[in-house]
Amino acid sequence: MKLTIKDIAKLANVSPGTVSKVINKTGNISQQTIEKVNAIIEETGYQPTFSAKSLATKKSNLIGLIYAGNINAEMNHPFFNDVVNSFKNAVGNLGYDILVFSNNKFSRDKQDYLARCVHFQLDGCLIIAGDRIEEATHALDQSHIPCVGVDIALNGPKSSYVTTDNHKVAEQVVTHLYLNSIKEVAFIGGPEYSVVSNIRKESFIRHMNLFGMNTKDEWVQHGDYFEESGYQAMNRILEHSSIPQAVFAVSDMMALGALRALKEKGVRVPEDIKVIGCDDIEACRYSDPSLATVKQDKDKMGKLAAYMLHDLINGAADPNSVMVDPELVLRDSCLIDTTEQ
């Protein structure tokens, strides 16, 4: 029969809490009691269970990973994958394991994230933001569970968030093009209801107007962050009599789709049109031509999320937000011929 922590406590004539404190090396326990409990553990070959280890500390060392709402990108998108990998490595070094939540059956059953966090005794949650966030996410944000969001502005009593400064993403693109005498620019955004895409779109239009640059209604198209939608959006732009000097897509995947459409139509990049994406995924380096992009520091975002959540769990910091600056990375798809300026 498998022994429990209560069995060890009974044999040692102490409480289960005392046994747990000896196992976890916490609390003010006499050396005599420590030696007695350890001797019984050794004699019986008792293996502490997960719950026994967490009894004294009141911590499970488990973090919930939630892909909230409508995430078109989810795990197979390189940007989110890289952020989560960075987070996973950092929280692993801090002593946590990750429990991934699926929101498919959960949404149909109208369960909530908070109830599942309590059920699994999670110490905290990382929330990867999609669009059309479900009410369950907001309820978790407003709860006692420490949470850190990526690309979602949480405001709960134990919530923080980290995001790229999405206003600067479009600002850097438009400013660079303006300074190189490129004034006719198209825009390929994510879904029209996408919060992040709309921030970038608003900043794009504002800075285009600020510099007196030209865009047209037919040059503003939308996709779903993936390559095929960028291909289709670029084809819609090319249907019209005039084409822009450059196109900015709010994800590298859509920008790669745009490159494919331009190549099929015989439009030269960068000679006839410049292309800039966003994210700086690995594929940018190997496309033909290599893709200029706005780098989101995925490694930094993941590490920040890990340490911010760790601090919230341990009461070492108050809720806060961090905006990570993007970086324009110029490659062949946006080469400027200075002799034409």
From TrEMBL:
Gene3D superfamilies: 3.40.50.2300, lambda repressor-like DNA-binding domains (1.10.260.40). It comes from the Bacteria. Pfam families: LacI (PF00356), Peripla_BP_3 (PF13377). Keywords: DNA-binding, Transcription, Transcription regulation. InterPro entries: Cro/C1-type_HTH (IPR001387), HTH_LacI (IPR000843), LacI/GalR-like_sensor (IPR046335), Lambda_DNA-bd_dom_sf (IPR010982), Peripla_BP_I (IPR028082). Coiled coil: none annotated. This is Substrate-binding domain-containing protein.
